[in-house]
Structures are given as structure tokens and as C-alpha cells.
Amino acid sequence: MTSFRNVAALARRELRDALAARWFILYTIAFAVLGLAVSYVSAASAGDAGLSGLGRTTAGLVNIVLLIIPLMALTAGAASVASDRERGMLAYLLALPVARWEVLLAKFVGLGLALVASICLGLGACAAVVAVQGGGASAGAIAWLAGLSVFLAIAMLALGLLVSTAARKASAAVGVCIFLWFSLVFLTDLGLLAGAIAFRLPIERLFAAALGSPLQVFKMWTLLASDATLDVLGPVGVYASETFGGRLHALFAASLAAWVIVPLALAVLTLSRRSAV
Amino acid sequence: MIDLSHLSMRFRRSVAVNDLSVNIPEGTAVALWGANGAGKTTILRCILGLLRYRGEIRVGGIDARRHGTKVRRLIGYVPQELGFYDDLRVGEAVHLVARLKGLRAANTGEALERVGLPGEQRKRIRELSGGMKQRLALALALLGDPPILLLDEVTASLDAHGREALMQLLGRLSGTGRTILFASHREDEVMALADRVAVLDHGRLVATHAASELVDRLGHGATLHLRTAPDRATSALDALRRSGFVATLNGVGIIVPVPNGQKGAPFRVLAEARIAVEDFDLVQTAHREAQP
């Protein structure tokens, strides 16, 4: 009960700090503006195309989410613990009757809620544009996209927190996280492509490798949620659909959940083993 | 109340605390005295569980390593500088810390009144001066009336006025039955607050004694300001130095630090050298710092 009270009190503080922070406002504006632009152009160019318009809008938004949300979540996590350590705030907090895991969980919850707010604001504006332009069914797809974006965001936040607990300086933690973001966004795609061509990876291994990347999982899951099949991905998609069928949702959920739980557990372990100053 | 047994702590290359054992009885105020790098802050941080250490720390009979949260419930801590959510208002900070200490409700006004910060509830922490921040830190430490106070060089970042105000507050706290363990390298703070002094040198405990003995043990009890005829000042300086005094000239006369019990010795030296002392002043050096 005390732990819950501590986590709630600190998480509320983290959330308030994040919502007032410049980084949060800038990322949210950038996300909303880009999302609105994509929604408007996609919906306008679709004309009477109906469902194809929905697919185009969602595809555009997926790309915006893939670029902005991981960067936002990784850097938010990276800056948190390390900068508190630099300012002496971590030491002060931990000198109070508060457990280390409580501090970390509070940061995760507080920053996670701030990310949820940012995603809801950004994608909510997009949903409004789509609705005004007559694509009523798109709102459901955007809601799916929002849910999956939140999942991706908290996975990246957990990874950022892990880096932050291990780093001595906030600048180093943010640097590492930007490199991670670049690797996940750009190098994973290239790596899978290179693996498929250079090493002639069998389809099942290629799919297993894709499951190891949170961004690939997010992409495949979004596709599955909007089209109910992965056939558009080619042989790997056909293999996944035929082999796992209805279990694909659970498979993707498990993969992303692992990206939340494992880094968060490692972050708690790292923080509990390191000195607070 | 606080038992440190064979406490050792090392940073990568250097030993910060070396096999230190000391017992701080309930209700006493003990100063950790030593120069920078003596290990004072490190000891306090080990007690709070902020650093990993070897040996054993028990607070109120509780093992600090295994039950850190329980131990910290018994402790109010004032750091060198308060590092807390800067945007928080003073009243909000009191409420937040009270919650984290498991208190049902905090009487914010009373907590702030106690440290001379009445009517500052709406101010943000970043708007407070250094002295006000330290008083807020003390107010936060006192929430829930913990039986133990740990103070880490709390006046280090303050100007003379801020230091004096904080020392008055702390003076009221000593002798109230609380166990106080504080780090300081200022003699005036030790004399004002401590019952006993634990003298540290490079992480080792070199002595423990009553605070009243500190002045004698430090060696230099006072500073003697001597005036001779201007044309005899250099000869007087030479005579004093030959006799082992660390004498210096200033624009007015000669300054000689003198140990307690030997305040008359410079007069004897100058009389033997047939140099007349025209005037003198004796200043008790009660505000000195431990030398590195």
C-alpha cells in the first residue's frame, strides 16, 4: 500500500513535469502537425475511394509514428534518471523512505502517461480531420494505431530508462539512445534485407528476426490490424499468416511486452546495484 | 542508535572510508570532523544506503543494508544543497515529502514556521535563496519528527548571514533528545552543535573526544596581534620564527597563532630579544576550518 502511494505520488510529479517540459510540447506539436498533414493529403487525394483512403492515411501515419514516437520515448527515458543523478535529486529522493524500484516505476508511469497524452493529442487531431473529410471508418483504424503506438512508446521508454540508469551523464544517455533510435529505425530494415539476400535466410528465420525488432513488430501488427492479413509483406507475410493465423496478435503482443518488461527489469536491477550519486 | 562496524567504502581507485567502527548513542550530537576528502559525506551516504559499502551499519538495531527503507524512516536528512523538483512550490514539496514519508497529512504552515519560512508556501523552490533552500531542506527533514538527523555540511554553500540563521535553527534542535550526526569542517559549527567529535583523516577514524576538547586538540587556541616599534618589527618577526612560531607581518604589526596554554610565550621570546611590545590583541580563533 505504501509502495503504491509512493509510486502514485512520484508518478504524478513526473507527469506534471513532463507535460510542462519543452521537449514534450515540441515533440507533440511536430507529431500532430506531421500527422495532420499526412491525414489531410491522404484523405483529400482519396476522393471517393473510401477504404483505400483509409489504408493510405494509416500507412502514412505509421511512418510518422515509427520516426517520432521511438525518438520521443527513448530520449524521455534517457534523460530522466541520469539527469536526476547529475542534479543530486536522485540521491535526495533515495535518502527518503522510498525504494529504488518505486522511483523507477514512478518515472515509467509518469513519463508513459505523458507519452500517451502526446499520442492521443496527435492522432486525435488526425482522427478529427479524417472524420470531417468523411472517412468515418478510419477513426477505428486510427484508434488501433493509437493503441499500438502507446505499446511501442512504452517499450522504447523502458529501453531509454535502462540506458539512463546505466549512464553517468544525461548527455551520454541521450547520445546512446539517439544511436539506438537510428539503429532501430534504419539499420534493422537494412539488416533484415541484407540477411535475406546475403545469407539467404530461410523465411521462418527471417520472420523470427523481425519479431526481435519492436519497430518491425509494430509495423506488422498495424498491418495485421487494418488488413487482417500479412500477405502484402510477401512470402514472409504469407508464411506468418499460414503458420500462426489468429495467434499472430498474441505473438506480436508477447514480443512488444518483452520489450517493455525485460528492459524495465534490467533497469531496476541496474539502479539497485549502482550508487545513487 | 547508530552503529558502524568495520565500515569500508572505496571509489574506483581511492579508499573513501577505511575499516571505521563507531557507535553514536541515542540523543547525542556527534560531529564528523575532518578536511575535504576525509570521508565525512561518504559515511552519511552509506548510512542512507546511497552507496554500496563493506562492513555493517545498524540504525536503531536495524540492518541498514537489508532494511534500508525502514532505516530511512528513522532519519531526517539535510544535504549540502537541496536538489529537488525545482518547479515545485514550497507547500507542494512539503506535501510530497510528507507523503513519501508515509505521513497522512502535513501541517505545511507549521512545518515552514518552524524553520522561519512562514508565508513562503506559494514560492517555487527555484525562486528561493540558498539559505531559504537549506531551511526548507531542514523543514522537510523534520517532517514526521524522525529520531535521527543527518546533516551533510549544511552551511557549506551559504553566506555568513545564511549560515548564522541556519546555525541558530540547528542550535535549537540539539539537546532535544534527537540523535544528530553531522559532517562539518567548521570549528564553530562543531562547538555549537556537537556533544562529541569523531575526527577523520583519509577515511580513518583517528580520534573521538568531547566537542569541548576540540580547540585544545587543534593546537592553535588563539591568534596574537602584536605591535612593536616600526623599526623593530622585522627583528621581532625573526626572533619569533627562530622560536618556532608561524608569525607573519601585516600592515599594523605581527600576527602569531598561539596554542592554548602558551599564549605568553611570544612575549617571553620578545623580552629575551629586548624588543618592547607596545600593544597587543588576543583573538580567540573559534571559526576555523579543518585543513586539508
Question: Can you describe what's shown?
Answer:
The complex is a heterodimer of chains A (277) and B (292). With 277 residues, chain A is mostly helical. Chain A has one domain (2-273). Chain A is built from 11 helices and no strands. In chain A, helix 6 crosses helix 7 (170-198). The longest helix of chain A has 37 residues, at 51-87. The radius of gyration of chain A is 20 Å and the shape is globular. Mean pLDDT of chain A is 86; it is low at 48-54. Chain B is of the alpha/beta class and 292 residues long. Chain B has 2 domains: 2-216, P-loop containing nucleotide triphosphate hydrolases (Rossmann fold, 3-Layer(aba) Sandwich), CATH 3.40.50; 220-284, Alpha-Beta Plaits, CATH 3.30.70. Helix content of chain B is 30%, strand content 29%. Chain B is built from 10 helices and 14 strands. In chain B, the strands form 3 sheets. A 6-stranded mixed β-sheet of chain B has the order 6-7-8-3-9-10, with helices on both faces. Chain B has a 4-stranded antiparallel β-sheet with strand order 2-1-4-5. Chain B has a 4-stranded antiparallel β-sheet with strand order 12-13-11-14. In chain B, a hairpin with a 4-residue loop joins strand 12 and strand 13. In chain B, helix 5 runs parallel beside helix 6 (160-173). The radius of gyration of chain B is 23 Å and the shape is elongated. The model of chain B has no long low-confidence stretch (mean pLDDT 85). Chains A and B meet through helix 1 and helix 4 of A and helix 2 and helix 3 of B.
